[in-house]
Amino acid sequence: MTEQTQTPTSQYVLECRDVSRTFMIGRGPFTEKRPLRAVQDISLQVRRGEVLAVVGESGCGKTTLAKMLLGLLEPTAGDILYEGVPISSVDRRDVARRIQPVFQDPYSSLNPRKTLAQIISLPLDVHKIGTPAERKARVEEIMELVGLPRRLLYSYPSQLSGGQRQRVAIARALAMKPEILVCDEPTSALDVSVQAQILNLLQELRDELNLTYVFISHNLAVVEHMSTRVAVMYLGRLIEFGMADQVFDHPRHPYTQALLDSVLTPEPQYSLPNIAMGRGFPNPLNPPSGCAFHPRCPHATELCQWAQPQPLAADGGTVECHLHSDPDAMAKSPRINEQKASAA
Amino acid sequence: MAPNDTAKATATWNGASADDFEVDAPSPGAVMRRRARRHLGLIIGGTVVLIAVICALFAPLIAPFDPYDQELTRKLINPIWGKGGTWTHPFGTDALGRDLLSRVIYGTQISLTIGVLAATLAGVIGSTLGMIGGYFGGRVDAVIMYLINCKLALPPLLVALSVVSVFGGSIPVLILVMAALFWDRYAVVTRAATQQIRSNDFVTAAEAVGCSKTRIILREVLPNILNQIIVIASLEMALAILVEAVLSFFGLGVQPPTPSWGLLVNEGRQYMFFKPYLITIPGLAIFFLVLSINMMGDGIRDITAPEGRN
Amino acid sequence: MEGNTPKNTSDHVLDVRNLNVRIKVPAGTLHAVTDVDFHVDRGETLCIVGESGCGKSITSLAVMGLLPRSATMTADKLTLEGRDLLSVTDRQFADLRGDRIGMIFQDPMTSLNPVYTIGNQMEEVYIRHGKGGRKEARERAIYLLEKVGITAAASRLGQYPHQLSGGLRQRVMIAMTLMCDPALVIADEPTTALDVTIQAQILNLLKELQDEFHMGLIFITHDLGVVARIADRVAVMYAGLVVETGNAEQVFSAPMHPYTQGLLECIPIPGKTVRGSQLGSIPGIVPALIGEQEGCLFRNRCSYAREACTDGEIDLETGGDQHGYRCVLTPEETVNHIKKAPNAAVAE
Description:
The complex is a heterotrimer of chains A (344), B (310) and C (348). Chain A is built from 14 helices and twelve strands. With 344 residues, chain A is an alpha/beta fold. The radius of gyration of chain A is 22 Å and the shape is globular. Chain B is mostly helical and 310 residues long. Chain B has one domain: MetI-like (MetI-like fold), CATH 1.10.3720.10. In chain B, helix 7 runs antiparallel to helix 8. Chain C is built from 13 helices and 13 strands. The longest helix of chain C is centred in the middle third of the chain and has 18 residues, at 196-213. The radius of gyration of chain C is 21 Å and the shape is globular. Chains in contact: A-B, A-C, B-C. At the A-C interface, helix 7, helix 8 and helix 10 of A face helix 9, helix 10, helix 11 and helix 12 of C.
């Protein structure tokens, strides 16, 4: 509680230290359960007011990470720190006051049997914040903040469009004035024109309320537009982490490179990118040995087949690739995916 | 989202501001009312059930005679459409000279009390177990599934018969026996429905807000599966009425002289060939009430079915 | 003399003129598709792009004869390889689907039957349309699975859909579509459910297969990025109407309709859009298309709306260069508007 201990740790509003989460997967009570390492040894830091983007393909563990950040899942190892304090040592309800989610599908994220007023004031009701009149005033205030007219107060979600619903979800998340929003694919279920409205709204709210976002998305164009820091995940591992400019302008991991190459922008002068990656996405229950990305990596060598690369800290970020941590050994080790790269 | 100047300018000829939010979609309540008005089955079934409820509530006011009043001089009078029928006894009288119309009207009290209470009690037991199993999953769910399977292994009519023959046939015993026998369908359906609702993000959102499990089950899950519970309740209610009639017919249910419909059929049995109305009238009452309850249940399912997206 | 007419029609694999679809809904008549004209040639890709509810999927269902019962369709012309589809019976239409018209859907998990093996389903299409026996069907299935880049094709035939990843399932779906060598393939958001790296592979595959099998391709999507990279021609739909049409270069580099312009401004382009800046957006929502519609349907969201937009029908003006758009603005006015358009986000 003293000043001295507070100052150095609270430099980051959110921090993960070697966070792992393993699920035991079994088909029935009598079969042997197998471990699924959804998230492995993730370390990252976010400062207040930043947008941390978590990118990766489906099954890479980004949603598990989000649930752990929200306190809905406990890490099997490692610590998640909120302003330097481990979340595990804080009451569940205090975590809820500070970190709130916004989900992908605005159709499933709002209870269809409740009015907007009930949905948005739910956090206030649960935490018994203010009198009923104050809660109503707060609900109206947030509705205005997110651009919802007051007369929708007693409407039901089924009466709203997708974009309006997502505004309601954002309003609910903001009801208790949290500091961090975890947005899990907040615009991927929306139309293009509505997506832009929601992204603009999120930017405005961040400036106005000094919010910190954890922004999970597979849409690299959106991520590049929104983020200040980027974490690239592959099969549960953080393979590249750094400031947005660094990662987008000089991607170091071959997988980050491939993700960036596969962004399709509306520019007809360019043709389709040729992603020189093997086809199979590996089975997370049976991950490849060594570097998990080696079967799909155009630069993979025999070294990658057996040795797990260690995170290399550089330029305020980390990268997990032998190309950067062991350039000499990589140069000597024979390439393994040559023909795959040329055939594709 | 402040409307810019061009948007304001546009407003002059399209009659609405450019970023106007239109709410022309009807509310869930309005959708339900609109569907209900067009649902013939619901209207017919609901009307008959409503009449039965009114009969049960106001039986002393509606019934022309006391249902227990014996008048042997007026025994076995034919109903109005039969030979010698009079308007005094539109449904005729039974072997003890009791007015059949009054007995049928009072019979709705027995049928509806047993039907409603048995279905409600079973519903509370079954839905609670089903929602707990569906929400928590894992071992809790395994235990509840085991209970359901045990229940399904019991032959319901046999259990009902033996319990009633041990404890005697009274209305409270009948209600308890049926509640204990009919909860399984609620549990199976609410369990599956809860699992499906639980996967929705609004449940996760409630968890992230810090809601207690009880609150999530009661406030987030229950309102979304209530329509399904009501539909099963209507089916179970119909079943309870039938089972009561059967048990009473065998003399194991409600005891004479209480005017239960099943008992009325039983009492009319010996006059079946020359006074068939003694059986057909209470029989038809059972038939139409059960049919109407089922029609109403189907109707409720149809009008509360969720609308597709958009 | 006779030879002339069929030749004209057979130029286009699919020719659609003045297609209208009306759907009965509780609130009235939904004008789902209005006055839609398009055609597709062999080896050509037509992209129909638009947001949800714009009528792009209903258009494709109309072409495939799969409209719901509550819908009525009228058209001046609807021909497939010169054959009039307006006069065929439901049965004949069913024979055409899977044979002359192939379909690829968004979710390969729901479009493949989970209880049959892949081989079984692929062979069935071939046999059902009388192309040959079990043996030929099997050979063609293996040949096509190899074509779509599936290794160990013969052993895959015995697998069930759930044993494959999403990308592989979509490859199987594409191979299945090609079993009868269709003249036209309609793909409705075929890559939306896939991961980005897989999406690029599937799109490349479709392009390669089109070069080889020379089918016409109608690609329906909301993703302008995909459209820009694969389309020969583009039809932008809004509120049931084609609001702009032309080749990809015309539509994306010189969009003439304010809606197309607005959509393009909504999308951040890495390397061009300033990070963190405000994106362009289209205020408001799509009008409910119940009952007769008048004037330009985009006018209540359009910042250039004027009195002339309110009444009458605005035609799809197609110039000599085949670039058409449904807007009362003259090309000069539109170009001026684009220059003035407050798109500070886009750096030169």
